[in-house]
Specification:
Elements (H helix, E strand, L loop, with lengths): L7 H17 L2 E10 L9 E2 L1 E6 L2 E7 L3 E2 L8 E8 L4 E3 L5 E4 L4 E3 L6 E2 L4 E6 L9 E6 L2 E3 L2 E2 L3 E13 L1 H17 L2
Antiparallel strand pairs: 1-2, 1-5, 1-15, 3-4, 4-6, 6-11, 7-10, 7-13, 8-9, 8-12, 12-15, 13-14
Helix pairs in contact: 1-2
Length: about 180
């Protein structure tokens, strides 16, 4: 019994699909600070970004110190995005403190109170990196509603490794497969 060999076009199409699927699986390994809210509570949230709420003010705190694994860990960078439920909230980034386990502290840039509006964001950079194995605390102070200062919120930080999938490869692979399928007999 003779088996028919696939046509050259079908072999080329199969080679392209195999190559694209393997490229679509490319990943990037990275290291980044991870934040933890409500330590030791049942609803503990952990991730590169967390949202906390203080008296009607939602604050999303996101880590922006991602680096490819094996490279120098950058200084801690955070992006705070605010969602007040009403007017009258303000924030002083100079009152945010990063505290190491041995008691050392770093302060964010000073600047005084500024009014907050929906989707307002502030980037904070500290002159220290969150190293692997290190545990640090971020004391999110400087929040106020009118003349009343709000209680500071403490978040825990630690370094973690992760893997991200580059979605651009997936979109390219799908596009190539669709265009190749259009030319197949």
């Amino acid at each position: 019994m003779r088996h028919a060999l696939p046509s050259p076009a079908k072999r080329a199409f199969a080679a392209v699909v195999v190559g694209l699927v393997s490229a679509a699986c490319a990943t990037t390994r990275y290291t980044q600070s991870r934040l933890e809210t409500e330590p030791h509570a049942a609803k503990t949230r952990v991730g590169e970004a967390v949202t906390v709420e203080v008296e009607g003010l939602k604050v999303r705190v996101g880590s922006v110190d991602r680096a490819p694994r094996g490279q120098v860990i950058p200084n801690l960078g955070l992006r705070l995005v605010f969602e007040p439920d009403a007017l009258g909230y303000s924030f002083d980034p100079g009152q945010v403190v990063l505290r190491a386990g041995d008691g050392r502290e770093w302060h964010a840039a000073a600047g005084g109170y500024r009014p907050l509006y929906p989707k307002a964001s502030v980037d904070l950079v500290f002159d220290v990196a969150v190293e692997p194995e290190a545990r640090m605390e971020l004391v999110l102070g400087g929040l106020a509603r009118g003349q009343k200062r709000l209680e500071p919120v403490t978040l825990r930080l630690a370094r973690h490794d992760g893997r991200s999938y580059d979605r651009l490869y997936w979109l390219e692979a799908i596009g190539y497969m669709l265009s190749a399928a259009a030319y197949a007999p």
